[in-house]
Each structure stands twice: as C-alpha cells, then as structure tokens.
Amino acid sequence: MYYYSHMHMHCPPGTTPYIIQPGDNFYSLAIRFNTTVDAIFAANPNINPCMLMVGQRICMPAPPPPVTCPVGTVPYTIKAGDTFYSIARANNVSLDALLVANPQVNPDRLFIGQVICIPRPVTPPPVLPTPVPCPTLRRTNRGPDVERLQRLLVNAGFDPGPIDGIFGPRTEAAVIAFQESKGLTADGIVGVDTWTAMGVTCAPTPPPTTCPNGTNPYTIQAGDTFYNLAIRFNTTVDAIRRANPNVNPDNLQIGQVICIPGPPTPPPTTCPIGTNPYTIKAGDTFYNLSIRFNTTVDAIRRANPNVNPDNLQIGQVICMPGSPTPPACPNGTEAYTIQAGDTFFSLARRFNTTVDAIRRANPNVNPDNLQIGQRICIPMS
C-alpha cells in the first residue's frame, strides 16, 4: 500500500521525480545527485527512508547552484574523509579563516562533491619607494645629505674618498665620473637628475608659502607646537589655526613653513586713576595677583572689565588697582613681607615662635599658598 500511495505524487518546484532502484537509500542518492540527505528529507516529508521500495517514486532536489568563491579564495571539492580541520592543515590556513570563507556551510555535515572556498593569501601591492628630499649639493657642502651621497656613489662603484659628510675634491671627482657614465651634465653639482640616476625617488619641491597680510612665514623647528609658538610670538593658538587652515597642528613637519600672526594689538596701557599697568607673566592668575599686590580679585575684575580672567595671555597688559593701605598688625606682632621659599614652619623657626601662633595672627592667610610680596604678621617673643 505504501508503494501505490506514491505512484502519482507530484514533485514541488525545484525537484524532479525519481524511481527507486535496488540498493538505493537517501545517503547514496545524496552523493549521486550532489545534494544532502536533509534536502531529500525536506522534499519528501511523507516518505519513510527506512522503507524505500523498488519502483517507488520520490522527489530529488535539484543540485545546488555552482559556488562562486569571493576574491582571495579558490573553490575546492569535498572528497571522502575531508573535514574542515584536515582541509585547513593541508592548505596551510587557519580553521577560523576557513569558517569565515564558508559562512553557509555546516562543517559537521560535509558531503562528497560539495564545493567550498579555500582562503588564499592575497598578494600585497608593491611597496613604492618613499620620496625623500633631494637637496642640491656641491663642493664645500657638509652634513648627512653629503654622507648619503657618498654612500650612494660607493654603491654605484665610484670612489668619493672617506664617507665623512664633507663634499671635497674626491667626492666632486666621483660625482663628475658618475654623471659622465649616465650621460648627465658633468658639472659636479648634485641636483634632482643626479639623485634620480642614483635610484633616489625625490620628493617634489613644495611651492613657497605665501602668508596673508598681518602674518609672517615661519619654518617649523624640532619640538615646535602651536602652543609654544603662540607663547613665543605673543599670540594665541586660535590665531595660528586661523592663519593656517590647511595645516594639521598634530602633524607638524620639520622644515614646514607656516604663517604666524603678528602680536595682537595690546590694550591701551593708559590705566585709569588708581591703577597701574601690569604685563602678564607665565602662571599669573587674578587670584595670585590679588595676593601679590594686596588687593582683591573683584577689584582687578572691575579695573579690567574687558579682560577674560580665564584666558590671560603672556605679554597681555592689564591694570592693577593700587594697593590699599595694609591693615596694621595687632600688638605683639610685626609686619613681614613674604620672600621666596618662606613657609609658616621656616618663619616660626627663624622668629622663635610657633606655626600655631603665626596662624592665629593671620586668620585670613592660606599658609599653603603664600605669595612673594605678600604681607603677614609675625608674633614677637
């Protein structure tokens, strides 16, 4: 009855009818038709594979489309006994690389005739020589470029004398001999043509930098940054950025030419009555200036309404309020002006008193932030 119930079955799209022959089973049919046992099961959900009968009609899945391997891989056809591990070892690739190259393949269910992709190392592009500066050299020149020239002459079979970085008569004679051998103008002067004939890839000479009005050209030296240039030239980092919109401040190159703004126009040095001009120095803040000049932060702010206290610039001129009359020291103490290196501890030892006594005599003074020129009161024994 099983046999007759399937005599007139219709096969779904993507499959073709097949009549069971003696010895057939799903596994042998999968190998013969380049498919999988799972695919045959899926095409025949109502058929018992353990009870196939000769003459029975089943549906065979169409073979999978040919595998197209991506760039950097080659196709490989599975053979008896193959596993991903053995294939990876035989082809000198990692198991992970093999899995990545075959994301749709189940490594635990490989079948003979199945096509997978084997990764192959991609040939890297050729490394082009790095262009280097090719300075014009002639007799009397000295330095590492001359030493480089002398080594190249030796490699080319010409004797420049000692490799000492000095362009003397022997180096000049070797250059002339080399130029003659290459059909160049034999003048003993090493220019781009001579460097190129020696196998050097010369960097193109950059066009001269034209700086806009109000700025001046500057050649980058070792250790330069926009920050220290701003301090050195009495300008700001923002001003240098604006003057050099196409320059990467994090990748300055020695010899690179940039434009430095002229110093900003200083504010009028005519300070109002009761104040005096003061030029900002490294480390200055309104707070430590108020202590040094015996005034207050608010008084300095009022005297400089257009100055940003959080963006003081070295060389900037501000107006300092005149020092108010310092309060008199109480009885039993004497006024003292802080000097470099002073601490409450060193002053207590020097004046034969104690740190606590100095603290009590100066309740509004921070002993951890003494300023040179600050006035305090010292208890007298």
From TrEMBL:
Superkingdom as given in the UniProt entry: Bacteria
Ranges for domain LysM: 16-60, 74-118, 216-260, 276-320, 334-378
Xref: InterPro entries: LysM, LysM_dom_sf, Peptidoglycan-bd-like, PGBD-like_sf, PGBDSf
Family annotation (SUPFAM superfamilies): LysM domain (SSF54106), PGBD-like (SSF47090)
Listed name of the protein: LysM peptidoglycan-binding domain-containing protein
Organism: Alkaliphilus serpentinus
